[in-house]
Amino acid sequence: MKKNIYRLLAQATAVSMIATSLFAYVPAKAASLTSMTDVLTRVKVSTAASHSLYFATPTGVEASTDTITVTFASGATGFVLTSLVVGDVQLHVSTATTDCANASYATAKTVAAAPSTSPTWGYGLSGQIVTLTAPTDAASGEITAGRCVRVKFNNDHITNPGSAGSYAVTVGGTFGDTGSLGVGITSDDQVIVTATVDPTLTFNIGATNATCDNAFAGNGGTVALGTLQSTAVAASGATRNGAGGTVEHICARLSTNATAGYNVTVKPTNGSLKSTSASADMIPVAAVTGTPTSVTSTSGTPSYGLCFGTGGTSGVDVTTPVGTAPSATSPYNPTCTSSTTIGDLYGQLSTTTSQVLSGASVAQNAWATLRVKALISATTPAHNDYTDTLTFVATGTF
């Protein structure tokens, strides 16, 4: 009886030892990856794209024999990886454990043709499978269990399948965790947006005694030169002889989105200051009808013309887009002041339409000052009705 009891005890002990031994060598069960996402730069069929693959690994990587594999759907309409090279691949690890696609990835691993000491991982491509091999000295914490991992395939070197549908991307390898996700490929992933901008041009031109600037809003008006003299030039900005006050100047302000620029022309009605009651009496003595030229006011010689204001009296608004400031066109480009001294240079006013100002591109509230000047001789006929009308036209080149 005792022998039987001892025999049973011995058998039970042996079974227990075998069971313990078996449990000691059973490998850990693979875990499922979580928070898996694959973000593509393009999802159109047959289009090259980059991938950012995210997942959280419950097991992590802790040995040099560990690998992470990424398998892209194959077949006649699968992903095409033939252009992918080692330089396209990046591997990063985050401290986050969830929401991997929005995590911060501070730890960067090096990906090379072959694994080396940490943090250098090896890269391999066989068909549809990318294999990342852990560093030769990988140990516990190479990729900490539970952490988010990001594998990037850059430079648009993976071509999407040729047919629309859902395609699997699978993560596995000897590190022990596995998981799959679906990538949606569509026939077209882009929407074209179109718009039109209407051509615009606004223009103000007028006589004023106020300083010209980017807010000038006047139109029309009169430049009253006063009583003309043979010993001094009547000039915009100077004291008006006879009637007192200040002679008006002309302000121009223009805005346009004409990409090839703009110009402003002037066309006088008379080409001179002409007496209404005695049309043969003019300043200068004959109307200018041809191409206008520059004239220098000379004592004893009647003259009448227009010139561009001095520095600080032309410009363009500071708002965006700034555009181009107006430039004076010959013969109106000599800069002049309100000086009444004989010897000033200015451009004739001819009955021929002549360009006064221009700009090379768009402009927002470009503005300029123009001055009118006149001089008579001692024999200029006396009348109180000398006049001319200047017609200014602004044009954009769109």
Describe how the helices and strands are arranged.
Elements: H1 2-25, E1 34-40, E2 48-56, E3 67-72, E4 89-93, E5 107-112, E6 120-126, E7 129-133, E8 148-159, E9 165-172, E10 179-185, E11 201-208, E12 234-235, E13 249-256, E14 262-268, E15 273-275, E16 282-283, E17 294-296, E18 303-309, E19 314-315, E20 327-328, E21 335-336, E22 345-348, E23 354-359, E24 363-375, E25 386-387, E26 390-396
Parallel strand pairs: 5-6, 18-21
Antiparallel strand pairs: 1-2, 2-8, 3-7, 3-9, 4-5, 4-8, 6-7, 9-10, 11-13, 12-24, 13-24, 14-23, 14-26, 15-16, 15-25, 17-22, 18-22, 18-24, 19-24, 20-23
Keywords: Signal
Protein name: WxL domain-containing protein
Signal peptide: 1-24
Shape: rod-shaped
| Biggest sheet record | 10 strands, mixed
* Class based on secondary structure composition and strand pairing: mainly beta
Q: pLDDT below 50 for ≥5 consecutive residues: which ranges?
A: 1-29
How do the strands of the widest beta sheet line up side by side? 1-2-8-4-5-6-7-3-9-10
Strand % is 35-45%
Gap from first CA to last CA: 117 Å
Count of individual domains: 2
Signal peptide: 1-24
Keywords: Signal
Organism: Candidatus Uhrbacteria bacterium RIFCSPHIGHO2_02_FULL_60_10
Protein name: WxL domain-containing protein
